[in-house]
Structure formats: C-alpha cells, structure tokens
Design goal:
1 helix, single chain, 96% helix
C-alpha cells in the first residue's frame, strides 16, 4: 500500500515539474526555428539586393 502512495507522489511531482520544463523546451525550439528562418530570409534578401545592384 505504501509503494502505491510513493509511486503516485513521485508521478505527480514529475508531472508538475515536467510540464513547465516541456513548455520551456518547446519555446526555445520555436525561437531557434524562427532565428533559422530569419537567417534564411536575410540570405534571400541579400541575394536579391546583390542581383538588383548588378543591373
């Protein structure tokens, strides 16, 4: 009986800690993807500017 209480206590602790940690991981991953996208768009912009200056 005590093992079940200990298991559910640890399980709930992992849930309470896991949700904020998972949220932070997702937020940082989204920020990383946005930075990569911005870098890619910046490269496209620079290439277009370079091509326009040649004409």
């Amino acid at each position: 009986m005590m093992e079940a209480g200990l298991f559910f206590g640890l399980f709930s602790l992992l849930i309470y800690l896991g949700i904020p940690i998972l949220t932070l991981v997702v937020v940082f991953y989204i920020i990383k993807l946005m930075k990569e996208r911005n870098e890619y768009l910046r490269d496209i912009r620079d290439e277009l500017r370079h091509r326009n200056n040649k004409q």
